[in-house]
């Protein structure tokens, strides 16, 4: 490993440690499990929130088939194939994890909802590193990034269980310690929030600023847009249920909207080709903006000439 890489890693670890020391723990709110739509259809509790995960399975399986069937996506690097494979496995697994959680929403089932989502998320970061920074580093980062995501969830839930066992079952500290220690230091979503937050910021930024290897880069931004919309729908679960006269809730729409993320990425994979002129989206936008401005200035000067000619003739 080069000196620069070591320094980057040390700075990143230091930032993480400082962040964990200076910020308070974020416990999982129990209100999160109280969704707007509890309706039961065909014997399935919370039916629409369960069924609306089905598109994840469809797009996950389609993506996996197309990745391997005659190299439909024209993936030229081995690391890309591994990265997209992990991504589509994560997407397909969301269907099972999320459906399992929504059948009976609680903390222990939420682990299975979040785990596949985190795998999909982190593999996307690795794919981005392969495509835009360095193939070798990106390929080597697939496993560590996915592991970081898994550890963030293990830290939130399993460390809590372990300490709960030690504190309560061995009865060293009693109820007071259970509240003070477990409430303060465990049941902590900070690493998970970080794993979610970093890709949300890093992916659109890298998509805009870094020269791509392939065409159709704007699809990344469409995917990011749908993800943000999904987050808004999730936050307004009850309000949307009220607005739609109890037809559909915000959380059900969130699932459908989030499924559009892999749909757009699959469309991108199907359509794109190797970029011959490697330039960032920002540069492309700048060039088109300058062209638009030039055309407008030319049009305006043509108009002036026309007005000049007509006034000269009338004189
Ligand atoms: Zn959900």
From TrEMBL:
The keyword ATP-binding appears for this protein: no
Keywords: Membrane, Transmembrane, Transmembrane helix
Source domain of life: Eukaryota
TM helices/strands, residue ranges: 6-26, 47-69, 81-103, 115-133, 139-156, 161-181, 193-210, 253-270
Keyword Flavoprotein: no
PANTHER family per record: OS01G0962200 PROTEIN (PTHR34368:SF1)
Protein name stated in the entry: Ceramidase
């Amino acid at each position: 490993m080069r000196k620069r890489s070591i320094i980057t890693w040390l700075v990143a670890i230091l930032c993480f440690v400082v962040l964990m020391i200076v910020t308070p723990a974020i416990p999982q709110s129990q209100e999160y499990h109280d969704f707007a739509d509890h309706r039961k259809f065909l014997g399935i509790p919370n039916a629409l929130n369960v069924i609306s995960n089905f598109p994840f399975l469809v797009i996950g399986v389609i993506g996996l088939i197309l990745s391997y069937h005659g190299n439909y996506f024209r993936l030229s690097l081995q690391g890309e194939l591994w990265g997209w494979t992990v991504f589509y496995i994560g997407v397909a697994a969301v269907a099972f994890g999320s459906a399992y959680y929504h059948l009976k929403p609680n903390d222990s089932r939420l682990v299975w909802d979040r785990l596949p989502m985190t795998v999909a998320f982190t593999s996307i970061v690795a794919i981005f590193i392969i495509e835009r920074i360095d193939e070798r580093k990106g390929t080597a980062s697939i496993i560590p990034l996915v592991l970081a995501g898994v550890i963030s969830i293990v830290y939130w839930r399993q460390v809590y269980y372990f300490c709960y066992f030690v504190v309560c079952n061995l009865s060293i500290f009693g109820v007071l310690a259970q509240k003070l220690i477990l409430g303060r230091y465990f049941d902590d979503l900070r690493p998970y929030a970080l794993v979610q937050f970093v890709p949300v910021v890093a992916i659109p930024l890298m998509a805009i600023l870094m020269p791509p290897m392939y065409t159709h880069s704007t699809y990344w931004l469409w995917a990011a847009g749908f993800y943000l919309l999904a987050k808004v729908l999730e936050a307004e679960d009850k309000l949307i249920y009220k607005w739609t006269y109890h037809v559909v809730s915000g959380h059900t729409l969130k699932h459908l909207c989030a499924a559009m993320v892999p749909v757009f990425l699959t469309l991108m994979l199907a359509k794109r080709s190797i970029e011959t002129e490697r330039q960032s989206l920002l540069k492309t936008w700048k060039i088109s903006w300058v062209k638009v401005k030039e055309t407008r200035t030319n049009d305006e000067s043509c108009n002036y000439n026309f007005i000049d000619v007509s006034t000269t003739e009338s004189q």
